[in-house]
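Dataset card, provenance and construction

Sequences and ligand SMILES were collected as paired inputs. For each pair, a complete structure of the chain with the small molecule in place was predicted and serialized as structure tokens. The example below shows a pair involving zinc ion. Curators did not alter the output after generation; any descriptive sentences attached to a record were derived from the structure itself.
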Amino acid sequence: MTMPFPLPPFVPSKPNQSRVDVDPDKQRRFLQQNGLRLLWERAALCPCGVRGTALLATGPLRSDLLASDTPGDAQTHDPDCPTCFGEGVIYYASEEIRALALGMQINYQPQGMIGDYAPGYAAITTFPEHQPNYRDRFTVLDTQILYQDVKIRTAETVEALRFPVAARTLRLASGDVSARTLYAIKTGLDWRVPSSGAVMQEGVDFTVTPAGLISWALGDDLGTAPVEGARYSISYFSNPRFVVVDPGFPRSSRTIKKQATDTPKQLAIRSIARALWLGEGVA
Ligand SMILES: [Zn+2]
């Protein structure tokens, strides 16, 4: 005997039996009560590019490119773009939201096949109306972690590190201390660390501005700041940042709570985001 196809689904006598019934209101309350404060920045793609023909001199390759349908467009972003700075991404809107940031990790991999890298991730769960997309950026405002930068001193008195410095409250035996930088050390103009006087102190040789930038005004006056062209290393607290690599799909549950028939209701969305810890910052 052959089976009929397609197979008719079993339909229960009461249609309500098909409902899933995760309580969306309970989920919303849980998110509001247990979520952390996150800054959510929405990403768009920058349309900038480099026209290849502009980079080529005269010759057959240039004529060939000019004669083609897309005359010499290079598939690369404009390093001088004033909107995306060559990154290809524009952050066009930001808002502070409540979300769960679970399993935050950096997972530093020293001396890997392609050098040092850090494929850290976090699972970010947001309200259904806060649906993130690829490349969106999350900053966890309620958490501070240590970053380590090496920079070359510019001619500016106030300089940005890769990320804005944030204060973290440490509960010490001597009382609560608000810490921003933990260690700073400089080289001379020859990029060698001098045997004495290399370590610098916050409040003596530099200060942190309210915007989280480094001001060398004190050290420039004392002669203890790194001179222009010298290198310095600094360990500082900043908020962990993540870029969405796996945006969650909208999810629903069917529920009949206080209704005659079961209807779909939107549930929280869980996305996976990659840690921004090594490499380029946001400044
Ligand atoms: Zn651009």
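Derived descriptions for this record:
The chain has a mean pLDDT of 88.
The chain has four helices and 21 strands.
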